[in-house]
Amino acid sequence: MRHAAGHRWMAFILPAAALAAAVPFVIPPFAGASSAPTTQAASRAGTRIDERQQVLDAVAGRITQGLSEADRARIPGFAEVEVDPNHNHLRLYWKGAPPQRVAHILAHLPHGVTAEVDPARYSKTELHAARAKLLSSLASMNLRVAGTAATVRITSIGPAVDGSGLEVGYDSATRAASGLLAGGQGKMSRQVAAAAGQRAGVHVAAIHRLRSVDLASRQHDRSPWTGASALSNPTGGICSGSFGVKNAQGQYMLTTAYHCGPAAVGRWTTWWGGDLVGTTDATQRSAQDDVVGIKLPSQRLRGWLYDGPASRTDGYAKPLIGWGHNNVGDYVCTDGANGGVHCGVRIAQTDIGVTGPNHIYRPDVDLAYATSATPGGVAAINGDSGGPVFTSVRNHTADEARGIITALDRTISCPPAYNSDTVLDGHRRTPWCLAGVYYVPIGQTLHDMHWTLVTG
To answer: Which end of the chain is more exposed for a tag (fewer CB within 10 A), N or C?
Structure first.
């Protein structure tokens, strides 16, 4: 059953998987800084996309009752909502008929917005239960394949966007499994899907997905501290500062990724100059949300984010105006200290569970990939861990927080723009470029940690 609502009908509908991977052809390429499109025409087109996305996200927020990506499983029958700012369109996946509340929203859409309801095989509630069942059956995230002595490592588990089942990522865990992979990923994927599906009790699509990668003025920040700054972590590597927050005790902190400094006590300094930023301890951290709060001796934060290339030294930054939930199809920008801002990155999937190289399962993660609108096809660089993910608002003059970078996916060749002189630690190691970024939704982090976002 498919319904359409709005002021016009779509002539055809792309399958969900195709839409998630589709290359947008309306939005213009974004410039190096999220606020500076290259031409007036590009600026107007980019602004239209931003405005459409804000409207579509507002409609999606009403449908999902303001719930986070994971908490939407509390809505009976709901599977997923997907926005398409390029076409001003919203696609809703639902098991059974949507309730009258949702039907009323779809019958009274803003002018120019179209929507459709596609049937889902499973609701998000059912897929969450299936994921929990599968997780409980795994030993250290390893899955034994029937008919062989091999085990594979499960790298990710998430509801399929269209509600057709679970999508399970896997990689080789043993030499025997590596041999099976060498014999053909198609056969291996079918075997993994069968084994995982038997344990989960729902349809499973298996994807060979390598284990996520933890990647450990902007360069020499000072108090009051600004987000997306370059930090030297307790082991001397580079990581990105993220959003400023206030904890339940009223202390102001700068956030970054837990895996950047997992020790019980740590000292964080500016990347250039080595000035003390603050310290971390065991009280303000979450391994599952991959976040840690750096306690600041100065207790001063700006509520702004650095913007532009990592090598930009004029201190350009934009204010944060708040935070928002994420929807499949949204365009976001990543803002890592090592690689700078990357916009035109599009959310492919939400509500995924991912296992990091530190073997810690991160249960609530969103995944976005660079598109043809992203310069060089780069979503992030090694060392961008802990950096902010945001959407550009108010005609590119301000930012809305969306999440904190936790891991990266899909290694690509670095374009010439990312070299030893433009990537901050480029003279220490060869720049490593990736097309995909996993991030923990900011709403999830604030809720779990009882923190409040500091805005500008």
So the answer is: N
Q: Determine the pLDDT at residue 149.
A: 67
Residue 137 phi/psi, 5-degree rounding, is: -95, -5
Q: Is the dihedral of CA 45, 47, 50, 51 positive or negative?
A: negative
189 located within any domain? yes
The domain boundary, picked from 191, 208, 225, lies at: 208
Q: What's the distance, CA 409 to chain centroid?
A: 11
Distance CA 131, CA 199 (A): 9
Mean pLDDT of the chain: 87
Residue 225 has pLDDT above 90, yes or no: yes
Pairwise CA distance, residues 84 & 378, whole Å: 21
96 and 144 together in one domain: no
Helix axes 100-107, 40-63, angle to 10 degrees: 150
Residues 7, 97, single domain; the answer is yes
* Whether the bond into 110 is cis, omega within 30 of 0: no
Q: Is residue 136 part of a domain?
A: yes
Q: Is residue 179 a part of any domain in this protein?
A: yes
Q: Which domain holds residue 191?
A: 125-208
Last residue in a domain, options 189, 208, 227: 208
Measured distance CA(232)–CA(120) in Å, rounded: 46
**Residues 175, 79: one domain?**
no
- Phi/psi at 391 (nearest 5 deg)? -110, 150
Highest mean pLDDT of the ranges 24-38, 173-187, 210-224, 328-342: 328-342
Structure tokens at 262: 């997992």
336 falls within a domain: no
Please give the pLDDT value at position 76.
98
**Number of alpha helices (DSSP H) and beta strands (DSSP E) in the chain:** 7, 27
Q: Which of these, 171, 241, 256, 162, lies nearest to 206 by C-alpha position?
A: 171
Answer for the pair 387, 304: CB distance below 8 angstroms, yes or no. Answer: no
Answer whether residue 35 shows pLDDT above 80: no
The Cα–Cα gap between 53 and 399 comes to 14
Whole-angstrom Cα Rg for the chain? 21
Burial class (CB in 10 A: 0-12, 13-18, 19+), 43: middle
**pLDDT tens digit sequence for 52-84:** 999 999 999 999 999 999 999 999 999 999 999
HSE (CB half, 13 Å, CA atoms) of 132? 8
- 150 against 364, higher pLDDT: 364
Whether 384 and 405 have beta carbons less than 8 Å apart is answered as: yes
